[in-house]
Design goal:
By secondary structure, the chain is of the alpha/beta class. It is built from 26 helices and 14 strands. The structure holds 6-phosphogluconic acid (6PG). 6-phosphogluconic acid (6PG) binds next to helix 15 and helix 18.
Length: 631
Amino acid sequence: MSKVYILMGVSGVGKTTLGMMLAEELSVPFYDADNFHSASNKEKMQNGIPLTDLDREGWLGKMSSLIPEWQSSNGGVLACSALKEKYRNQLAGGIDKDLEWIFLFEDFSIIADRISKRKLHFFNPDLLKSQYDTLEPPDYGIHIKVENSPEESLKEILQKLNMPEFGIIGLGVMGKSLALNMAGKNFLVSVYNRREGELEENIAQNFVDKYSDKYQLQGFDDLKNFVFSLKSPKKILLMIKAGDPIDEIIEELIPFLKTGDLILDGGNSHFKDTERRLEKLSELGIHFLGVGISGGEDGALNGPSIMPGGSKEGYNRVKDLLGSIAAKDRLERPCCNYIGPGSSGHYVKMVHNGIEYGEMQLIAEFYYFMRYFQDRSPEAISKVFTEWNLKQISFLLEITADILLKKENNQYLLDKVLDIAGQKGTGGWTTVAALEVGVSLDTITASVFARNISAFKKHKNQVRELYKLKNKADLEITDDELFKSYRSASVINHSIGFELLRIASVEYGWNLNFSEIARIWTNGCIIRSSFMEKLSGIYDSTKSSHLLLYPDIAEKLNEDQEIFTRIIPAILSQGCPMQVCSSALNYFLSFTRENTPANLIQAQRDYFGAHTYERIDKPRGEYFHSNWKPE
Ligand code: 6PG
């Protein structure tokens, strides 16, 4: 598709002159709207009879039907007054892609003066006045005040046509990497970073300067200039700290934005904040997308996994851009797709992080066992993880194998790292979100709690003194048994995360496509793995069940079941903690037993609180109360 440029404005503003110059510059055909009038319209105009909207309808419709033809060949430049929004809509006929509006304007007196000097025939200033009265300046497109020579106006048009399409606010690690990724794909990008104090370096300009020989980036530390540097409708990606800073910047942006502009929040925002912001911005006619972006610095630079949710119309505007900067799956499709309405994009990213927490802790638990209970060196464990990674590719296994080899002054760097795990919140949010929809989130919650426990280092040291744990005699556990136990726990951790998504999708009416979510996670993101490839194939695009119900999953778990149920308790029995592995096993056992002790819980509740219970020998929905006290 080629672009069609429409130069619009009152008569005498220079549409034809500039239009022809622009067409020549771009080597595309020039079209003058006057040439598309019907004979009857022409006759009316010759006799000085003003055209009615009805007269204009056929004329605009004719051009509107020609525009797609021009677009499918070389494109073109059309000079057409298109004074009212209604006329422009008729002309565009629903096409908003590959149409570039160029609005030429100048004060009435200047144009009147120009026309009266230029035209040899009588000039009626009333006619021009009525055009000014009719004019509804567009709040989009390129605006050119034709105060200079046509050559200079042309230069300005060409410069503005080169205006960045996309803006990024926030030049932290992720913001910078995404800007470079976009620039590397030939997108024109403006970047903004607040100048915190007088002494603060000019972060945006320095960043732009650093890459000026390679990329066309524009840098700003003034928000208004940044916003006005962008082509309309504006598309602005926020890559700043989640929480209040997002609300603050949105407030600052609103006065400079118009209906149809788009804000994308690419941080790890809480889904409820996203929901609230979406509601507020949609009332103002501003599109909003909560975009999960995974992959860290490297992913942002070379291709992250992208999960946009919210305004579908907004998504369609950035679909191509996001698709080209995203990682690619094995069939070269972008690891990016519209996730769903509302805050679904950020919710899905939150669950991604929950699964990530679980997977990280799982690997850490096996590392810990091999290191301190099997007395193996980091190098030897790295080798084990590399082997596992050949059997089941996982980015997290791969980086762990690297970490274990890293040395500083001939000593393992890992041994110098304080064992208190940080967290920014997404793991804990996943747990709370699961509680809100009544889902059991065992492994993910266990991984959050494992991080919490690690923070109580002082207490742990004191407690250790009090409880002398007896280590049992070494048990023989093979690497294959460890791998199969790891694989089972990992499958269960994924099942738990996807189950939360499945229930949340129903609860919030998002209609999530799990096959597509798994596909988006096959590359670029932190939990990318060959298992994710499998999940993408296992899930159906239209319906879904609990992952444990799929025959492929059942087959895998059944294969390893004897080992899994034997090895995890064996490791625990040696005094080695395994929070995630054991909760995965517990989840699996609770799900696969014919019944649970929940009947006893019901009886206890009924005993002390008359909470009633249902009976297996009566239909569901009938409630009973008994006097449980001994007679
Ligand atoms: C990603 C990561 C990224 C970040 C998380 C986890 O998908 O690229 O999940 O978003 O690492 O914020 O951070 P914490 O471990 O600090 O909670």
